[in-house]
Every structure is written in C-alpha cells, then in structure tokens.
Structure of Metallochaperone with NTPase activity:
Amino acid sequence: MIDQIEFCDVLILNKCDLVSEQELEQLENVLRKLQPRAKFIRSVKGNVKPQEILHTGLFNFEEASGSAGWIQELTAGHAEHTPETEEYGISSFVYKRRLPFHSTRFYRWLDQMPKNMVRAKGIVWCASHHNLALLMSQAGPSVTIEPVSYWVAALPKLEQEQVKQQEPEILEEWDPEFGDRLTQLVFIGTDLDEETITKELDQCLLTEYEFDSDWSLFEDPFKWKLNQ
C-alpha cells in the first residue's frame, strides 16, 4: 500500500464523513509527506466525478519514479518540508554516515524501531557485507533489508572507471577511502525524536576497535542466499 501511495498521482480519501475534519487533515498531511505531489480528492461513499480520475494527463512515469516523499527528502532536504506537516507533528530527517554498521546491532535496532515511524527507506552499509549496497525499507510494522547492488568501489578498477564515466554524479559523493560506500536513510513519522534515533543509530556503527578488526569474523544476522 505504501509503495502505491508513493507512486500515485491522485489519492482518493473515501468515507470522509466518518472522521472529524481535524483527523482528516492529519491523515492528509501524513499522506502528503509520503507523496508530496499527488492530487487529493475527498469523497463520501466512493462518489467521485469520473473526470477527476480518468484521462487526467497527470501521470508521468519519470516524475512519479522520483516523487515519493523519502526521495524528495534525500534530494531537497528541508526545502521540501511544509508548515502543514510540522503543525501536526509530522516530521522527517535524513541520517547519513560514512562508517558501516555492525550488522547485528543494526539488525536488532530494526527489530525495535519506534512505533511512531511511518516510513523509513534508504541505502545501508553493513560491515558483514561490505561490498554490497543494502536497501532498507520500513512501512508500519513491515521492515525489510536486502542487497540491491555492489558498491561501485567494490567493482574491478576497469568497471569502476566505466561507471564513473557513465554516471559522473557518483563522483560528487565519492570518498577517497570508502568510495561510494555510505549509509543514507530517510525517516518519516509523527513526533519523531531525531536526537534519540540518531544516537541509537550511531551506537550501531563500528567502533574504532571493530573497524580495525577482521570484518569477516563478525556475526552475520542476515539469512540471504547470495550467488557469489
């Protein structure tokens, strides 16, 4: 459901007669945080004018692919924040670090994410799979983390150069030591405690001692079957 909301251009809120105006506004603002560019239509008993949803010409695949709230947060940051969402306690922030997570500590943190987290998504760097970029996605009680690609820095030198030529924007985030490896997560929720969440995540990062250790000896909590 969350994925559908993030990809849509029109959102119909039905049975609006069954909730108060304040509840409806709060719901709209949560949804607007998830999908800032959608057209909102309120309805009662599913009564919607056909011209509101058919042949509107609103849908554009390329724009829809990048219009989700978490993507807007990554690319535009606070510029995408609206007073309406902040008024209802709906907030978001980006967590970005250049050190890898200790996989077990991060895995445990995912299992006890704050209940007021509506949406979280982004790329993760974990020490036990240091060559793989991992995608973490949370929507309500559902949390997944899985590999999506190799880090460019983990590729053979020739392939690295080819990717850099084809996608020069990679160089904007390129680190001399770690390459493109990093963790970048967007969190969206109600009354989020950014300071506490950030502190908890920082405690999941490798310590200096762990960083200098053999990462292959770390426990791996993920049960993926990977083709090497």
Summary: The chain has two domains: 1-88, 89-219.
